[in-house]
Structure formats: structure tokens, C-alpha cells
Design goal:
Number of helices of chain B: 5
Structural class of chain A: mainly alpha
Largest sheet of chain A: none
Order of helices and strands of chain B: HHHHH
Largest interface: A-B, 49 and 28 residues
Oligomer: heterodimer
Number of strands of chain A: 0
Number of helices of chain A: 16
Distance between the termini of chain B: 23 Å
Distance between the termini of chain A: 35 Å
Strand content of chain B: under 5%
Helix content of chain A: over 70%
Chain lengths: 338, 68
């Protein structure tokens, strides 16, 4: 990533438009560094899929977190644009890997072999982001620290993914275990993006640790809220399709006695193929108060994030942007659900 | 942060209509009367929660899908 690329991008409001700019830079970087035409074609497919996802999602933490944290430390996010390219490529690799693990590949991969898709994910996780980081216009000691941060973060997330895979389709999993796996995957992912930005901005180790807590809380709250969206707002739940044990399901399983649990597990099995069973599960969880329990858990993480944000003494516009992200995740603040 | 204390309160809110009414009227006083000990973060969480929201309202407040 050459510095001149970042400097030609104007400072934009942190919106989907901003994410699309970063995506364009990421695509340019990936295509420039691809080894041959087939690798370019596969990268194009992956990035086009992410483009579609960005258009339909209201939060893109892989872009906004590094930019906002950098702005919070330095008062300016523009120097962090190349870093946002690295975090975007990392996110895409993680996302494809997740889809492969869940057997939930989006349609844009139709016609591609699994081995090739897996190779794209590996390249996005293990080659391109590291290359972007190695080209950042920063002191070598900062770049070394950031490479180490990426390796450590991926290692922790891999542990979280192991936990997640062990839970899929399980007849019983505790809500604590589900929460721990969300913290270890999505929490660590967002913490990684926040730490990289703090390091790039030259924050002290102490301040970097606070941003790590902030990112971890935002990532965990965001994933828990996103799991609620899949179950309670989407017409068709991908998590029920795949047998994922998200927090509302785990909370409910914990409260059932043995015969009731068996009946509910039967319903969960049915819901992997039957839409009507998915609706019955949704109603049952709502009546049992599981959405409310999840909303309160999300709020606990939002409060943790707000507290960390306060500790950072962040500069504007980063401070307002990060506060706005937390508000959009929370069920109880004025910015939620919009 | 121990989440158990907050979970105890939410469980009671769901299962006990009288507690629900009391929480709607005076959340802080009601929690103090239960004897449940909360730390600063948990108090902040309880104060942020709108105990009057129905299930439908909660559903409408779920943030639309984010890329997490």
C-alpha cells in the first residue's frame, strides 16, 4: 500500500460511502498483488460479495473502528485509511472462513470450488493484510508491533472459532460458554482492529489496552445484537439453518427441564429445514423473555464500551463516532435500530 | 463485572408481575429493596434499560444487521 493512495482519498463522513471507498482501495491492492488471473478473479468475487454486504448493513466495524480509533487518538482519521484496507481484507478472510465452517456460503460463490474459496480465505487472512501493514508509512518498530498484534489476534480468534464449532448442533450449551465464544471471536476481532489503529496512531501501551477493551466490548455487543437480528428480525434465520447455538437459544435451553429440552431440540432440528418451525421458535423465545435477557446482556457490554471510551479521553470526531457506534448497537439508546 | 446480579433481576422481572410494576415505577428503589448488590457498571446498565418496552418494541430496536 503506497502512502500516495491514502492521501488522494478525501476525508468523508463515516458512512457506507466511506466503507465503499476503503473497499475500492482494498480491491485495487488485492488485484495489484495477485499472482495470476485466476487469483484476481477469485479476489474480485470475494470483494464484490463484501460490497453487497456493506450496502445492506448499517455497521461496518472493520472500516469504522480503525478510522474512529485513529481519529480519537490523533484527531484525524485520514492516515488510517491504509490500515482500514488491511482490516477490511482481514475481515473478509474471517467472514469467508466462517461461511465455509457454517456451510453457509453466499450465492456469489456459486460455481466456485470449495478448495479455491478456502484458498481465498487463507490468502486474505495470512498474506494480504500483512503486506499492507509492511508498507505502512510508520516507524519499523510500530509495524513490527502491529504484525505481532495481528498474529496474536488471529490465534485468539481461532480458539474462539473452535469453541463455536463445538457448540453447533449441541443438545446443551451454557449461555456463559456462548458468550465466551462470542467474546473470543467477534470481541477479539474488533479488539484487534482497535489495537492496530491505536498502535498506528502512536498511542501508549496503557491507552492501547483501553482501546482493546473498548473494541472487545463493541465487537461482543455487536455480534450478540446481530445474532438477535438473525433470529428475531430476519424472515429466515441462517443461524437456525446451520444449527448455531446463539445466546437466545442457549439461554432458553438452560431454563428447560429434560422433557421440555428434548422437545425444543426436536423443534431446532426441524427448523434447519422448515420455515414454520423457525417462526414457532421465534415466538417461543419471545414469550420466554429471551430477547429481553439478550438485550440486557448487550447493554452490559455497551456500558463496558462507554466506560472504556470515557477512559480514553478521546478526541473529536473519533469520540462522537465511537459513541454513536455503541448507541446503534444498544437496544435502549436513542440511536438504536435505525 | 458479575452479570449474575443483573440476570437475577431480569429473571424476576420476567416472572413476577408485581416486581415488574415496581420496576417501572421506581427501578433504583426496587433494586435496592431486593438486596441485590450491583457494581457501578451494572447500575449504569440498569439505569440505561427501558423497563417499559414490550417485546414488539424490543424487536423493532434490534440494530439492523452489522458486519460483525
Amino acid at each position: 500500500m503506497t502512502t500516495s493512495v491514502s492521501l488522494t482519498v478525501p476525508s468523508l463522513t463515516l458512512t457506507t460511502q466511506r466503507a465503499e471507498k476503503v473497499l475500492a482501495l482494498a480491491e485495487r491492492f488485492a488485484l495489484e498483488h495477485a499472482g495470476n488471473q485466476r487469483q484476481q478473479e477469485m479476489m474480485r468475487i470475494a470483494l464484490a460479495g463484501l460490497h453487497a454486504q456493506v450496502r445492506s448493513a448499517e455497521l461496518q466495524p472493520f472500516v469504522s473502528l480503525p478510522l474512529l480509533v485513529h481519529a480519537a487518538v490523533r484527531g484525524d482519521d485520514t492516515p488510517a485509511l491504509p490500515l482500514a484496507v488491511a482490516t477490511t481484507l482481514l475481515f473478509l478472510g474471517i467472514d469467508i472462513h466462517d461461511d465455509l465452517a457454517d456451510g453457509d456460503l453466499p450465492d456469489h460463490w456459486n460455481g466456485c470450488r470449495t478448495a479455491e474459496i478456502s484458498l481465498v480465505a487463507a490468502t486474505l487472512l495470512c498474506a494480504l493484510p500483512q503486506l499492507v501493514l509492511s508498507e505502512l508509512d510508520l516507524p519499523p518498530s510500530h509495524r513490527d508491533a502491529m504484525q505481532r498484534t495481528v498474529a496474536q489476534g488471529l490465534l485468539r480468534m481461532s480458539g474462539g472459532q473452535h469453541m463455536d464449532l463445538a457448540h453447533a448442533g449441541a443438545s446443551w450449551v451454557s449461555a456463559r460458554a456462548v458468550e465466551a465464544s462470542v467474546r473470543a471471536k467477534s470481541g477479539e476481532e474488533a479488539a484487534l482492529f482497535a489495537v492496530l489503529a491505536a498502535q498506528a496512531a502512536g498511542a501508549s501501551p496503557g491507552l492501547t489496552a483501553v482501546y482493546e477493551r473498548l473494541g472487545g466490548a463493541i465487537g461482543t455487543a455487536g455480534q450478540l445484537a446481530s445474532d438477535c437480528a438473525d433470529l428475531f428480525r430476519s424472515e429466515h434465520s441462517k443461524d437456525l439453518d446451520s444449527g448455531a447455538r446463539t445466546l437466545p437459544i442457549a439461554l432458553h435451553l438452560e431454563r428447560l427441564d429434560e422433557p421440555e429440552r428434548e422437545r425444543f431440540l426436536d423443534l431446532l432440528r426441524e427448523a434447519r429445514t422448515e420455515r414454520a418451525a423457525q417462526e414457532r421458535i421465534r415466538q417461543r423465545l419471545l414469550e420466554a423473555g429471551e430477547l429481553r435477557r439478550c438485550a440486557v446482556t448487550v447493554e452490559l457490554y455497551c456500558q463496558r464500551a462507554r466506560r472504556a471510551l470515557q477512559e480514553t479521553r478521546a478526541l473529536e470526531p473519533g469520540r462522537s463516532g465511537l459513541g454513536g457506534m455503541i448507541d446503534r448497537i444498544s437496544f435502549f439508546s436513542s440511536g438504536c435500530g435505525q | 463485572m458479575s452479570q449474575q446480579a443483573v440476570e437475577v433481576l431480569v429473571d424476576r422481572w420476567i416472572s413476577d408481575p408485581t416486581f415488574r410494576d415496581e420496576m417501572r415505577g421506581d427501578p433504583e428503589g426496587t433494586v435496592r429493596r431486593t438486596g441485590v448488590q450491583l457494581d457501578e457498571e451494572e447500575w449504569a446498565t440498569l439505569q440505561a434499560i427501558d423497563w417499559n418496552l414490550s417485546n414488539d418494541e424490543l424487536q423493532s430496536r434490534i440494530s439492523k444487521d452489522g458486519c460483525f
